[in-house]
Amino acid sequence: MAMSKSSLAFLVLAFAFFLCFIMSTGSYDYFQFVQQWPPTNCKVRIKQPCSNPRPLQYFTIHGLWPSNYSNPRMPSNCTGSQFEWRKLYPHMRSKLKISWPDVESGNDTKFWEGEWNKHGTCSVEKLNQMQYFERSHAMWRSYNITEILKNASILPSATQTWTYSDIVSPIQKATKRTPLLRCKSLPQPKSQAKSQPKRQARSQLLHEVVLCFDYNALVHIDCNRTAGCWNNVDIKFPP
Ligand SMILES: *[C@@H]1O[C@H](CO)[C@@H](O)[C@H](O)[C@H]1NC(C)=O
Ligand SMILES: *[C@@H]1O[C@H](CO)[C@@H](O)[C@H](O)[C@H]1NC(C)=O
Ligand SMILES: *[C@@H]1O[C@H](CO)[C@@H](O)[C@H](O)[C@H]1NC(C)=O
Ligand SMILES: *[C@@H]1O[C@H](CO)[C@@H](O)[C@H](O)[C@H]1NC(C)=O
Ligand SMILES: *[C@@H]1O[C@H](CO)[C@@H](O)[C@H](O)[C@H]1NC(C)=O
Ligand SMILES: *[C@@H]1O[C@H](CO)[C@@H](O)[C@H](O)[C@H]1NC(C)=O
Q1: pLDDT band for position 215 (cuts 50, 70, 90)
Q2: Which residues are near ligand 5 (CB < 6 Å)?
Q3: Cα-to-centroid distance, 88 and ligand 2 (Å)
Q4: Distance 216 CA to ligand 1 centre (A)
Q5: φ and ψ at residue 97, rounded to 5 degrees
Q6: pTM recorded for the entire structure
Q7: Catalytic residues per the record (predicted)?
Q8: Cα–Cα distances in angstroms (integers) from residue 168 to residues 155, 190, 211, 223, 225, in the given order
Q9: Which of 118, 119, 121, 122 to mutate to test the pocket of ligand 2 (most atoms within 8 A of CB)?
Q10: Rg (CA), the chain
């Protein structure tokens, strides 16, 4: 009896260690560098409106996400040192306020903290907190999506619509790598949703452009994850 109790205890302990191991290993295959279009962030938040919307007319950073090819949800919330404000020197903070603002509630620090704790902690084997933010800012400067789209005459418009490839092609051409787009659906007013066939009622807004990078966050590579936009539904790029 004592024997089986202790072996049970051992099993429980071993399992606990196993879980800890799974959750703490911040291993990943590659990075997704995600830029977002701020006007879309708040346009789609009808039920819980943004408390301090900043509809900036340029792509800003959402995050740099260590990612796994076989498990799209992983890794996240790895153990390891949590965000420390003092580790971002003031010069860097003022740069991030432009490239990586919180466009929904206005608390930039809280946004950086959330992204570091959820994603940054999973790539700490390669990038410490300072490097994580520096690298992200450098990527933002090097890959100016706003300018790439502007050069291709894809400008914010309340009425014009685009296909997925209309938007992807110029980015692919300018960066020589395949990006990924993510869209958000616009909630329809009830009256419209009822009178229109379901298919037509659907519409989507361009929300994010994802560029992929290798394990070291240095080499730009093709993204090959499934697009985050509906097939065959026009895309709006709203001002
Ligand atoms: C990706 O996730 C799978 C399943 O969770 C895991 O077995 C694998 O080790 C992960 N790959 C990397 C490089 O972390
Ligand atoms: C990670 O933590 C964030 C913030 O606490 C939470 O929203 C998210 O669901 C967590 N993700 C996972 C996979 O546990
Ligand atoms: C912003 O977020 C930080 C980090 O979560 C927090 O310490 C600070 O109090 C917040 N500031 C405001 C004005 O809410
Ligand atoms: C990106 O391009 C836009 C449009 O040309 C320009 O206004 C902006 O200053 C550029 N941003 C950076 C970081 O170079
Ligand atoms: C946009 O076009 C301008 C003018 O032709 C060019 O100088 C610039 O390099 C282009 N920018 C991008 C990101 O392709
Ligand atoms: C994406 O590319 C990686 C690396 O080449 C590969 O391991 C993975 O299977 C590919 N995934 C898909 C969905 O094609």
Answers
A1: very high
A2: 144, 147-148, 151, 174
A3: 23
A4: 17
A5: -65, -25
A6: 0.88
A7: 62, 115, 119
A8: 14, 32, 11, 12, 14
A9: 118
A10: 21
d(CA 131, CA 133) in angstroms, rounded, equals 5
pLDDT digits (tens, 9 = 90+) for 162-210: 999 999 999 999 999 999 999 999 876 665 555 555 545 478 999 999 9
Classified by CATH at the fold level, domain 29-236 comes out as Ribonuclease Rh; Chain A (3.90.730)
* Beta-bridge partners for 205: 184, 236
Query: How many other C-beta atoms can be found within 10 angstroms of the C-beta atom of residue 150?
Result: 14
Q: For the chain, which residues make up each domain, given as ranges?
A: 29-236
From residue 231, give the alpha-carbon distance in Å to each of 20, 32, 187, 206. 39, 22, 18, 13
Give the ligand with the smallest distance to the CA of 178.
6
CA 148 / ligand 4 centre spacing (Å): 9
How far apart are the C-alpha atoms of 46 and 65, rounded to whole Å?
27
Q: Which residue's CA is the closest to the ligand 6 atom numbered 12?
A: 224
Residues that are catalytic? 62, 115, 119
